[in-house]
Amino acid sequence: MARARSLPRYRRSPFLVIYWRAGALLVHNYATGGVATVPPRTAELLDFFADWHTASEFADRTAVPLPAVRRLLKTMANASLLQSSDAPRSVREKAMARWEAWNPAAGFFHTATRDVRFIDPVEGQRALRRKAQTVALPARVKRYRDAWSRDLPRVRAVGEFPRVLLSRRTWRQFARSPITLDALATLLGLTGGIHQWAAVRGQGDFPFKTSPSGGARHPIEIYVWARRVDGLAPGLYHYRADRHSLERLRAHRRPVSVKRYMPTQSWYEGAAAIVFFSSVYARYQWKYTYARAYRATLIEAGHQCQTFCLVATWLGLAPFCTMALADSQIERDLGLDGVSESVLYAAGVGVRPRGDAVRSKPAGSPPLRMRPNRRVVDPSPNSRSS
Length: 386
Ligand SMILES: Cc1cc2nc3c(=O)[nH]c(=O)nc-3n(C[C@H](O)[C@H](O)[C@H](O)COP(=O)(O)O)c2cc1C
Hints:
The protein is of the alpha+beta class.
């Protein structure tokens, strides 16, 4: 009797999505990322294991021999499709349980799009050129052929604000010199610093930043990877948005290659500082209990990233942004579980190399040939045009 009690019991993970891909039936645990190809009758097994059961309880109900059931259950538990009574619950499953009504739509999208394999950029460009020979690119601009239309007066880009907007570009070459701590502070303060608080009746104080935020929840956190910043040791830091300070999480005593966090992005090796934008989902989930709100967290990261790039342009630095991230690696080093808080986006900055030209292409590639579209912006802002 005592022996029977120690037998492992199994229960279906509450975070499973089942779908077919290329003819194969897949069961995907969207909390842990575990995926297994299974035969269709597995759905019946998973249905049975809605509550805790032993292998023999399942074998007794079916014609499947007990050793085969045990093997199958073990395999499924290893792929995290079943929880086992003799193993601790995974941290990710515990965190995913707090996503509640956001699941399964948001939870599945969140993990199914993480940690993807990026192809070699040179090979990627080659593949795109080949594709363009057989598959036409979609139109770059939408138009309504038969609609009434009129040309608008060209934009008179006078003053600092349009100058900064129009000169923002993605830079992929940098000088080796460090950026100043003042510049980093300005970037962080104007991008993610809380510059005002407002008291909301019955809910306490809410932060306000230069970017808008749904319900002023501000789910975005900023982490700094300092590489060459005057007066700041290389390493990973958290930007404390209310105090405008940096909290050190990890010192980098030896240089860390960009490849560690951004595989295939070697052109950003010269960046002096890189910031990771993460989202603390609970801030949104507390108010917005439906999956659509997940989209808003992505949008918020975009707002802040654009602000970062514009501030860097205004400071005369060379900004960039990238989504080619090694999600789990970054999160491990920052101490995030990837579910209650996960990295979404990165931006970086370096000192501009000598010369006037924007360096959008990695060193060694032919420069991007840009031509102005004079229909939008008046090239001589002091003359009024129509
Ligand atoms: C969501 C997003 C993801 C991007 N990811 C990458 C990336 O992985 N690597 C990269 O070098 N640039 C990346 N970029 C930069 C774009 O390549 C760049 O914005 C585009 O070529 C237009 O050039 P511009 O920024 O100078 O206007 C990304 C931009 C955005 C908005």
